[in-house]
Every structure is written in structure tokens, then in C-alpha cells.
Design brief:
This protein is an alpha+beta fold and about 170 residues long. It is built from six helices and five strands. It has one domain: Histidine kinase-like ATPase, C-terminal domain (Heat Shock Protein 90). The chain is globular, with a radius of gyration of 16 Å. The relative contact order is 0.17.
């Protein structure tokens, strides 16, 4: 068994067709017989779907040929390292939206496992669908499924936009 694999590595414009191709490739890899941990396989796949959905729905710059995308392309990478999985994402967000994301991630990273579960249950019962189609559960689900602190960074591009990078770590 190899101790390192790059399962998916995409940098550039993301569409529904591209997402379908990436998820198909990921599913083939995860259904490989040497990956025996079914829970880990399901979590990697579910979190990948959530991350790609977030990039598609919540990126604040979706124009395929915008000049900022040449230097700050959306990205989605899944790696397997010694049985653990890392999921890396990146996309452009408005600075004002980045502040809210940062606040929520810092809050979630301060919670223990039981507190994250409580926030998850409360959010499920109070969820309302936003105009972008989400219910605000994505980051909570990521925190719950990984059981780890979510690593993230915001690189300011200009007065309007920042590049939001995130890393999820799933232990075997």
C-alpha cells in the first residue's frame, strides 16, 4: 500500500460537470478494496460533496474568465497520507463574507466534540434556507465529521476580495 496518494487535484473554474467528474474519480478511489474503513470513506466523500457545494454556491466570484481567477483559482484537492485524508479547498470571497466565515470557524474550533454535536443538533432544528440555497450547516458538518480543528486562512487580494483557503483532516 502506498503511504501517499493525490486522489483529486483540481485548480480552476468549477462547474457542475467538473464536480461530477471529480466525485466520480473520488468514488472509484474510495471503493478500492484496500480502504476498509467504511466510516472514513463515507466521511471523505460527504465532506468532499460539502466542500465542492460551498465552492460552487458561496464563491463570490463566479465569472469563468475573470482576471483574478488566473492568480487565485478555485481549488479542490484530496490527499491520502498514511491512511489519513486531507481535503484542501480555496475560493474567492468578499471581504465582508470572509469576516463572518472566520468568526464561525474560530467559534467552532473552540468547541469540544460534545459542544459541536449540540450546535449541530440545534442548527438542524432551527435551519432556514438562505438565498444561496444553504442552511448554514456546512461548516458545522465539517467540524463534526472531522473531529479536528479546521485549518483556514484568508489572503486579502484587494479592498473587495480575499482568497479563502481551508484544510480538513480526517484521521483513519
Amino acid at each position: 500500500m502506498k503511504s501517499y496518494d493525490v486522489v483529486v487535484n483540481h485548480k480552476g473554474f468549477i462547474s457542475l460537470d467538473i464536480i461530477d467528474d471529480m466525485l466520480h474519480h473520488l468514488k472509484i478511489f474510495l471503493n478500492n478494496k484496500e480502504l476498509e474503513n467504511k466510516t472514513l470513506r463515507k466521511r471523505v466523500y460527504s465532506l468532499s460533496v460539502e466542500c465542492l457545494d460551498n465552492i460552487l454556491k458561496h464563491s463570490d466570484l463566479n465569472e469563468e474568465n475573470h482576471e483574478l481567477l488566473d492568480h487565485y483559482p478555485p481549488r479542490f484537492i484530496v490527499e491520502r497520507i498514511a491512511g489519513d485524508f486531507l481535503i484542501h479547498t480555496g475560493n474567492i470571497v468578499l471581504n465582508k463574507n470572509g469576516e463572518a466565515i472566520m468568526k464561525k470557524l474560530n467559534y467552532l474550533n473552540e468547541l469540544d466534540e460534545n459542544e459541536v454535536n449540540a450546535v449541530y443538533k440545534e442548527s438542524l432544528s432551527n435551519a432556514e434556507i438562505s438565498e444561496k440555497g444553504g442552511a448554514g450547516l456546512g461548516l458545522i458538518v465539517m467540524s463534526k465529521f472531522t473531529g479536528q480543528k479546521i485549518k483556514f486562512d484568508f489572503e486579502k487580494i484587494n479592498d473587495k476580495f480575499s482568497y479563502f483557503a481551508m484544510q480538513l483532516n480526517l484521521k483513519k
